[in-house]
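note to self: dont lose this again. the chain is below, predicted strucutre after it. 138 aa total, dont forget to put it in the shared folder this time
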Amino acid sequence: MLKNKTMKSIGLFVFGVLSGFVLSFLFINYHVYSFIILSLLFGSLAALTSFFLDFAFREGNIFSFWIRFLNKYVYERSLSFLYKPLGGCSLCMNQWISIFYFLLAWRFVDLSFWFLIPLSLISHVVLFLLLKHFDLED
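---
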């Protein structure tokens, strides 16, 4: 979308400023929008956790043994349907991490069950944008 690094950083800065204004508006009216804020918070945390694990699973990083284990014992055997949810695909693994964060929010901050789908959608969109705009191959 944006080819130039300067334009990309300006775009991210503008996105950050606009996000800050929206979040400050939501925090001013916290009681009205508390479930929306909690869904945004826990969905973003789930996406950042998935993004971190995607980085940590790459060769040469701390959890690279996990992908080697998955390749050897899961992908090459009859359990290949478990490969993607266990770490072979960031977006596939993100659903389980989103459910984990939803269960934390449900238990500790009493987030309603009806916010599971919005939390998962927020998490997937944030993770997709992170994977698209921040290349981990460098």
